[in-house]
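Many introductory courses stop at the sequence. We go one step further.
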Amino acid sequence: MKNEERVVIAGGGLAGLRAGERLRELGFRGEIVIVSAERHLPYHRPALSKEAINGELIASDLRLTISRELNAVWRLGTAATHLEPDRRVVGLPGGEELRYDGLVIATGVEPRHLAGAPRQDPRIHVLRTVDDAIAIKRAINATQGLVVVVGGGLIGCEMAASVKTMGRDVAIVSRSSALLGSAVGKNIADTVTEAHRVRGVRMAMGVKIRHWVRQAGGVAIHLSDGQVFFAAVVVIAVGASPSVAWLRGSGLVLEDGVLCDPTCHVVGGSDVVAAGDVARWPNLRFGGQPRRVEHWLNAVEMGRAAAENLLAGRESSRPFTPVPRFWTEQYGMRIQGSGLPALGKDTTTLAGSQKDHRTITGFIADGRLVGMVGLDAPTAMIKLSTELWRQNRVTASTPPRRLPHQAPQPAAAAQPTTTQPAVPQPTTAQSPRVESVRFEAAPRAAAGRTRSEQSMRFAAVRTEALRLENALLKEVAARAEAARGEPKPNRTQFADPVELARVPRQQQESQPLPLPPSHAPVVRSRGQGRSLARSSPKARPR
């Protein structure tokens, strides 16, 4: 792209930030404009339901440090109103039009509404932004009654655990019979449910809310099993919906998010890519069915991949084929997941401990391991991750799935360029042969830390957290270069290290799983001196 060209990034969260940084890494010297509906610069969103609620961190602790090389124009508190791809214009409030040469859609998701809930009541909250977390924390501190969390998923469980550690009475209302449901498997779900129960969290499982009765002292919640909870504060955590209202009428395919092809290019758009929670794309590693992935690390990786493919152009891009990873922490228990457990039709125990609750559940589909979730087993998860990669490789013989509303692609462009040979998969009658790993004893975190001790701990490990993310990105680059037989560049991606301010515990203690060579997209560092030009509607390397 030329220096006078402009890339607009719609969305000022993690995916948008990483996309902008990747553009600069690849040598784009034009203007980058980041349009964000929020009034805050990017921050660590997973901490909102944990450290931001229980007081371990304040809002300023959550800020992500922005690379000094980004040099972007930030339009904070400015939500995009519409998109006109034919004119290459993003509409802004007041009739303003922002022209672009390339567009990254990273607007994320919005909290899902619960039918019948009186959302106008100030005692009823949702959690998505740092402002939401501040409002919930103030409401809890200003009251003394029951806090009701509606929803038994990751956010609901994290919220309930955080409020319970504050010494407050908490209740969870869920339509599922067990917390976390099928996301982690029955064994881990039962363990998490029991952990909440023994700590005094009141449970209403497998029920629906019949009525909401607003009263002076609180909100009465009438349940289908006859129970009535009188709540001083209510937090609704029943999932999220893609933030795509501003894209209606644009001609893009909006089906549970923004539909993309395997390279993150948006179906129905030219020079438009999408990344993060809002993007729905076919991951060729897991069958090619378009899906969304709402995980922190996916936002990092997809933001970078989308920016890279925007510069390369649709025909020269490579598919984005990660193995998704997620993690959560409740009452000191660490849950880590890898792959797509939701695809599993059966489960098996990959590893376990006879002394305590530590275990790893594998998720099986058609005789193939498609996901795994571990409870307090980080070392064993890393060891077993190679089997998950092995059974879900992308090979040259795997053609990308043709998407609805998408014209056929040329054969050369449709084939992923990974050259690793296909690995024979187990038949449906076979279980994946995964060797059990003996767990090693690990010290548990001491309870009752003071705020001063927490601050010292965050300061001590924030460099390590940065190292983990940078090591992940460097490994992708090194393996891609090795596959092409190119020399390793002498420079890192940034001239100066990017330092994170006070990284929350969840990010500090969760190490990304190793990346296999077949995952690596084309990655070039600034040290290779790649020149970019724009001679057509798409940006191509020269």
